[in-house]
Structure prediction request, 622 residues.
Amino acid sequence: MTTSDHADHSPTPEQVELIALRAALEALREQIVQGALADMARWHPEAGSNGAVSVRNLLHYIHFRRSDLRPLQKRLSAQGLSSLGRSEAHLLHDLDRVLALLAGVLEGSWTPSMPGQDPTIDEGEALLAAHTQRLFGPHRDGEGVYIMVTLPSEAAEQGDLVAAMLRAGMDCARINGAHDDAATWTRMIDQVRRASAALQVPCQIYMDLPGPKLRTASVPAAPIFAIHPPRDASGRVIAPAEVTLAPAQTPPIGSPSVLPVTPAIYSDLQVGDRLRFRDTRGRLRELEVKGCDAIGRWQGQIWHTAYVEPGMPCRWWRPGALPVRQGEGCFGPFPEQPGFLVVHPEEQLLLARNTQPGRAARRDADGAVVEMGRIGLSCPEVIDDLQVGHRVFIDDGKIGAVVEALIPEGAVLRITRARAEGEKIRGEKGLNFPDSTLGLPALTAQDLDMLDLAARQADVIGYSFVRTAQDVATLMAELDRRGARDVPIVAKIETAQAVRNLPEILLTVIPRRPMGVMVARGDLAVEIGPERLAEIQEEILWLCEAAHVPVIWATQVLESLARKGTPTRSEVTDAAMGVRAECVMLNKGPYICRAIETLRDILLRMQAHQHKKIARLRALHW
Prediction:
């Protein structure tokens, strides 16, 4: 054989690359199949069920994504082959098709080792569609993204409102178990069922278990009655402040806008009388009685800012040719009002083990902190799960802190995120502990109470603050005990722990009952950081598509429109991105019907252009 003959039979660089690609894909396929086989023995779904197909495909996808495939994708694209970037719902099928094409080009052969066991593209899409319809029922348009809407409390009594929401495009009515009670929820369900039947529009009932409420305890307001006359832009007083007087009572009168005064003084007042006092700053102030309001209470006017505290003495006198002091008394008591405490960067704050009301830090004359402030929390037992260095976020992440020390009274926090001028902490604000594994019960007593009703009445049950596979196993066991073995559940992914455990959560539920996943982006953004939210919500979408599990896109969708009547540009873009999920959730608001109509219009337009990650090449119109 001559040198030229040898050169003629040598593979070209293109053939060398195709041979190398085939070898790389065969090795990848073997890694995926063997890894999934080993894991299948652990999850052992029933053979032949849809659950088994979805579990196997999800396991294939998990092992597929354990390597950095970007270099391989680039090489596949360079040869005009699928880069496997849209293979979530039918992974092994796509991989085998690429191998078959390579085998054909190289005049070899390729036979999948498990023909017919894994979903094709059509079968993967059909499984996801069937599972979606199992959760949300038949779609009013035949197909498309569903719209879930949180019912306001008024829906329990206002059938017209529910009917309007259905006409606007609501496909699923959400009942939030964190609000109202069983009697109200029952009336809401009745209103939805009646309106759905009357309009002949399908609508599922979704009931959200409230989950553990990690909230700050109350912070009572300082018992101060503040009087502020109106001022112009330059700070000049332009009119007197109007003050309503009432006789002091025990317990104190309930209105924070009424100034109580000693009953003996109040009963003798006349128009033109004056009340003179020194306020909390020692400044002499005088209030003039000008008349009565519609229900007979004395009305007074004062031209200067004043701060009045309970028990502050006052003198009553009636002006005339010879003004005479008529009597003495005092102001108060005042009703307790919700308040707040203020924290600044680098200050300490005690997260207390008890639920006593919070209090602000004590400061010396120079403003230096001499005793740190404190705030209680609704579930003080979580303090036992904290460690030094763990992060804590308050009020949707507006305030950030880190655990600096653990003492018998609680956890000492160092404020790391707050405005320089200070940040207010009020009662009933959410707390997040992204670094801590919390030993909270999987289901609270309130959850179990709601589950009794939900097991009988709900079409779908949402599980708030799910963290582990054991959590969903506990919920399924409770549903089984209530005879609700087929009721679908939705795992709400709103903690960093749930993100880490999502594959096991999916694998635990899929073989046993229909399920969905809600991307609860509000709490999730606080837990993982807003800069990671876009990345993590994509990963959740990919994993759920691989498992043929429908996804609900939730939190602040068109919120400005629902609450104020006008959407922001970023909200419209966000709503359009929701088309990659199977359902989009709206929260309640006075303009909710307008928000439903707008969202439905956006989704109908976008689903003609986009399906999951795939751009649909619909004709463009200019």
Residues 340-432 form a domain with the M1 Pyruvate Kinase; Domain 3 fold (CATH 2.40.33.10).
